Amino acid sequence: MALFIPRMHLFEIDDQPWFPPFLRVIVQAILAQTWSLNLLIPSRSPAQIATSNLIQHLDSLASLRFVDFCAGAGGPSPLIEQQVNTYLRNSNHEEVDFVLTDIHPNIDIWTRIASENPRITYDGQSVDASRVPERLVQSKDGRRLFRLFNLAFHHFDDNLA
Fold this sequence. Notes:
The relative contact order is 0.19. The protein has a 4-stranded parallel β-sheet, covered by helices on one side. It is an alpha/beta fold. The chain is built from 5 helices and 4 strands. Helices cover 34% and strands 11% of the residues.
């Protein structure tokens, strides 16, 4: 399928090392908030649409462990985790875990998210999604890794994307 708009390799100003951390937190929070906005067309939030696609297209949800690379302030992961695990519970399947990572970890927000969601943890070290550390790709409890990249491909060149 041809794309109407070609993929672009862009950077976010808040990802630059010189960008003030207090402003980075604000930008990340705004980006995370957009995932829960209900749109007019379609009438669901982007997080609900993403969750529906995961449930519809992944036959073995319960055998996965989700790692959100480029998670910022959590992005859609808390919303996706809640909906995916509700679906799994209602289907009599075991719930799955989500791990938040980012090159600029937002520890304060992630600590709050993890305290409210027992199935969400985070890696407090800086994680470059193009060079994922072994500790994140190792199998936990026999579960396979599912890498989440939510609105993140613009950070990568064509080969990495």
